[in-house]
Design goal:
two-stranded antiparallel ribbon
Length: 417
């Protein structure tokens, strides 16, 4: 294939990775799918961050790789062959110990792939002490203090708790008072104008003190507003259910999640669980949080949502923010993406799903921003003035990486077909 803009000959990245992977043979079979190609999690957790490193090597980042970089990509995969083979061997050891210890929590690939790579890098192939090392890793991953998904499910489904929690949920929402609508103060734009380079702590403090985030949520209950923000699929936000189970594959948008679904993802992160409250406290506080402005409990979080809403408006409309301010910097980052240019050129430039992603970038951005500040609330880690820009910019980077991955997958499927 040839890129339309430069005429440079390219090859599909996924095809190149699959070819290089096939050269590694059966030694990496535990990290491969039925067709012998690397698993999606192998690419996401091992090849991209630890082998190809597209942040340091942007020539490997796109869905298509220029011909002059093809040999380099293949060489990086081949060079990592021994450590990848050892990683696969360690993965089998950890899975065997996991079964022996009757551990069922979490997806083994998500939890262990990178830990196995660490073992492979430090110790090579598993030796006589492999089982002991595997048990130590499993203990580190699973035995950390903190609440668990199983504990959450048991607590909310226990008949001794469910009735009281449901009554609390109904009462909390019945007592909810809508914020009074008001215009955003000029300090909002002033803070966004300088927060990327010289955040003004006094300005941010004033926004928090005057409840700017709460006031900015006043219209979210109006028909279609939260829907347009990408926070719900309903015309208006509704009282959540208590819930009982959750799945990452079917997780609804933030305002449509049950109380259990709101807590599910933070509890699946073994590294972060130790910083969370006990399950009963988490559940009761989440019930209260769900009825608050922006369905958040901390004013700093609400202010960040308002700042993100204002800054992200430039992603889909004419520039309105100050030159060099947060909105302009976000727009510049967004417009640098090649797939965005392709989507904006016309319907034939990219697949329909990717074009829809580009058009809905602001909704995806606000959704991810809500998840980010919600997680910080659970960890009692409110965003400070000095951190606002890092949060706003980091959320857009995360959205871009997700969209790149989807585009790459689409192009790889088309190339395979």
């Amino acid at each position: 294939m040839t890129t339309a803009k430069t005429g440079t000959a390219t090859l599909p990245r996924g095809l190149l990775i699959a070819q290089a992977w096939a050269e590694l043979g059966d030694a990496v079979a535990p990290l491969s799918g039925a067709a012998g190609r690397p698993l999606a999690r192998t690419v996401k957790l091992l090849l991209d961050p630890l082998v190809l490193r597209p942040v340091r090597h942007p020539e490997f980042a796109a869905g298509a790789v220029a011909v002059e970089h093809v040999d380099a990509l293949r060489a990086r995969v081949a060079g990592a062959g021994p450590v990848l083979a050892a990683t696969a061997s360690w993965f089998l050891v950890l899975k065997k110990e996991r079964r022996r210890l009757r551990i069922t929590e979490g997806n083994p690939q998500d939890l262990y792939f990178q830990r196995c790579f660490e073992l492979a890098t430090g110790h090579g192939e598993p030796g006589p002490d492999a089982a002991a090392r595997a048990r130590a890793v499993l203990a580190d991953v699973h035995d950390r203090q903190g609440p668990t998904v199983a504990g959450l499910r048991d607590f909310v489904t226990d008949a001794a708790n469910a009735g009281e929690l449901t009554r609390l949920l109904h009462a909390t929402w019945a007592a909810m008072a809508a914020p009074r609508p008001t215009r955003l103060p000029p300090a909002t734009a002033d803070f966004l104008a300088t927060c990327a380079s010289a955040p003004d702590r006094a300005l941010f403090g004033a926004l928090v003190e005057h409840a700017t985030g709460t006031a900015g949520a006043a219209d979210l209950g109006a028909p279609g507003v939260a829907l347009a923000h990408g926070l719900t699929d309903r015309d208006r936000p509704c009282r959540p259910e208590l819930g009982a189970g959750a799945s990452t594959r079917t997780l609804p948008k933030p305002f449509d999640r049950s109380i259990v679904e709101r807590l599910f993802l933070p509890l699946t992160n073994a590294a972060a669980r130790a910083g969370l409250d006990d399950v009963p406290s988490l559940v009761r506080r989440e019930i209260g949080r769900s009825a608050g402005p922006w369905q958040l409990a901390v004013e700093e979080s609400r202010v960040v949502l308002v700042l993100g809403r204002e800054a992200s408006a430039d992603l889909v409309g004419a520039p309105t923010g100050a030159p060099g301010g947060a909105a302009a910097r976000l727009r510049l980052r967004w417009e640098r993406e090649a797939y965005v240019h392709r989507a904006l050129r016309g319907p034939a430039a990219v697949p329909p799903g990717v074009r829809a992603d580009v058009r809905a970038v602001r909704e995806a951005y606000l959704r991810r921003l809500w998840v980010r500040v919600h997680g910080r609330e659970l960890r009692h880690d409110p965003v400070t003035a000095d951190e606002v820009w890092d949060v706003l910019d980091g959320v857009l980077r995360s959205v871009i990486l997700d969209q790149r991955d989807r585009l790459r997958s689409v192009l790889e499927r088309e190339a395979g077909a």
